[in-house]
Design a protein that fits this description.
WH-like_DNA-bd_sf, disordered N terminus, four-stranded mixed sheet, Arc Repressor Mutant, subunit A, about 325 residues, HxlR family transcriptional regulator, alpha+beta, two-stranded antiparallel ribbon
Length: about 325
């Protein structure tokens, strides 16, 4: 992202959902809703057909307390809706993705593609198979308006107010511990979850993509404690997302720049759905070539056709798990 336009602070125009909170804009609210490892893994399994409590508990090896809390917050945030059913003579609830939840598919696909491409694994992630052409493929992020491929160098960013809410992010979205993550290779995404499964990791990556380079500048732009910032920068260096520079700064590697696809999908979802609830747009990515706000389209590298919500073949043995 080569340009940053900073505008005046915008006022809150509507009530947010439970994980939103007054004072936060679209991206600030979304960090609290989606930038959480367990939330993303629950969404992943919901797309693979899991809809009942026992299904998530068994496939993710997640504790009852964590699963109960996440299902409640995801329902409150409009990602899931409940539907009653009876089993063994007892009334129970199952959970179905709402339109808002279904629209996270681009973020999940971009996360999967980044992990598969950039993180060495003993057990490789399954291929992305495009149903329309039947081939294993990768994704390319394109502008839905003009159809051209888009990378960070092709964009400019407009920031209105403070994306992290100048303290609001930490206050409204208190840190949620991950606990022990699943051993299942399908749900083990250690690299990607550092940059999207953690609200501060996602915030730091976004700052890097708009050109923030030094510790002092990160502190000036983000509502983040020095200890947390130092930890995230250290982890990003260890993962090869950042490298240190001779001027005591940090620079994105090719691996880090590839995280733009995840970041763009997060911002796109935020501005689609949180604005509906009255949150002001706090960060907008525009495509320089066509001059319009970036709306993400993910195309198949093998055939060139766009992916759709239902056009990714589920990994073998996972559908309805």
């Amino acid at each position: 992202m080569n340009g940053i336009v900073v505008g005046a602070d915008q006022r809150e125009t509507g009530a947010g959902r439970s994980s939103g909170g007054a004072g936060l804009g679209t991206v600030g609210r979304t960090l609290g809703v989606l930038a959480d490892t367990w939330t993303l893994l629950i969404l992943q399994r919901a797309f693979l057909g899991v809809s009942r409590y026992a299904g998530w508990r068994e496939t993710l090896n997640i504790s009852d307390a964590t699963l109960t809390a996440r299902l409640r917050s995801m329902t409150d945030d409009g990602l899931l809706r409940t539907r009653p059913y009876r089993e063994g003579g007892r009334a129970r609830l199952e959970y179905r993705l709402t339109e808002r939840g279904l629209d996270t598919w681009r973020l999940l696909l971009a996360t999967w593609a980044w992990e598969r491409a950039w993180v060495p694994r003993e057990v490789p992630l399954p291929d992305i198979v495009h149903r329309e052409c039947g081939r294993s493929s990768d994704i390319v992020l394109c502008c839905a308006h003009c159809g051209e491929p888009v990378g960070p160098q092709d964009t400019a960013v407009s920031i209105s107010g403070a994306v992290a809410g100048r303290g609001g992010l930490a206050r409204v979205h208190p840190r949620r511990t991950r606990g022990r993550l699943p051993d299942d290779p399908l749900s083990l995404l250690p690299g990607a979850m550092e940059i999207i499964g953690d609200r501060w990791g996602a915030t730091v990556l976004g700052a890097c993509l708009v050109g923030v380079r030094t510790f002092t500048d990160f502190e000036a732009h983000l509502s983040i404690s020095p200890e947390v910032l130092a930890d995230r920068l250290r982890r990003f260096v260890e993962l090869g997302i950042l490298v240190r520079t001779g001027d005591h700064g940090y620079r994105l590697t090719e691996k880090g720049r590839a995280g733009f696809q995840i970041h763009a999908c997060l911002v796109d979802w935020a501005n689609r759905w949180q604005a509906v609830d009255g949150a002001p747009v706090d960060l907008d990515i525009s495509h320089r070539a066509c001059g319009r706000s970036l709306r993400v389209r993910l195309d198949c590298v093998a055939c060139g056709a766009p992916f759709g919500r239902g056009s990714v073949e589920p990994p073998p043995g996972t559908a309805g798990a």
